[in-house]
Amino acid sequence: MRLTLPCRPQEERPPYHRYKKGGSVGGVCYLSMGMVVLLMGLVFASVYIYRYFFLAQLARDNFFHCGVLYEDSLSSQVHTRMELEEDVKIYLEENYERINVPVPQFGGGDPADIIHDFQRGLTAYHDISLDKCYVIELNTTIVLPPRNFWELLMNVKRGTYLPQTYIIQEEMVVTEHVSDKETLGSFISHLCSGKDTYRLRRRATRRRE
Fold first, then answer.
1. Which of 59, 172, 185, 203 could form a disulfide with 120 if both were Cys (CB 3.0 to 4.6 A apart)?
2. Residue 17 resides in a domain
């Protein structure tokens, strides 16, 4: 008598992949792409923070109210102390400065708006009383560029630096009438829009301590 036992079927094994090395390379590629996406996200986040937080804080620190006390040696009165006030707005990215001079407390002065445009190399004076604009070549020997001017005023604001003050007197003559204000750049043309505008030339410059 023969006893036959049924054969136990073999367990199916998953097919053997011989390309494990290629699979690991693909994983590294996916990981690298993920790192690139992550880094790009960090860059965009940094740009966002810079634009909406740092620049906003910087904008608040770009406005200064300045008052300078000095003695007028040319006045008929002895030891006459005067104060000249200015509101200064510095635009670092656009590379220009705007200064508003209200009505001085002393005689002989008029309120004015002034723009120093370092891109165009021009200075514009808006005489508010006459409602006229005067444009002249920017004098870079006495006008600090926006970044340097901003650092100076920030140091004065913090009390870490008290600069020596002096007065610059300039004599100017009108040379021509400006009809096309667009040639003066967007900042000055906006300031002088609708106003009679003239070009000036310096005749003499004097400095008084």
1. 185
2. no
Amino acid found at 195? K
Q: Are 137 and 126 in contact (CB under 8 A)?
A: no
Q: Is the pLDDT of residue 13 over 60?
A: no
Phi/psi at 60 (5° precision): -70, -25
Looking at the fold, whether 203 and 134 belong to one and the same domain comes out as yes
Q: Which residues pair with 198 in a beta bridge?
A: 134, 177
**Largest distance between two CA atoms of the chain:** 147
For residues 63-96, one letter each, b for 16 or more C-beta atoms within 10 angstroms of the residue's C-beta and e for the rest, the string is ebeeeeeeeeeeeeeeeeebebeeebebbbeebb
Q: How many CB atoms lie within 10 A of CB 184?
A: 22
Amino acid identity, residue 64? F
- pLDDT, residue 61, reads 75
The string of pLDDT tens digits covering residues 184-195 is 999 999 999 999
pLDDT tens-digit series, residues 37-93: 565 555 555 555 545 444 445 456 788 887 766 665 555 555 566 677 889 999 998
Q: How many separate domains does the chain show? A: 2
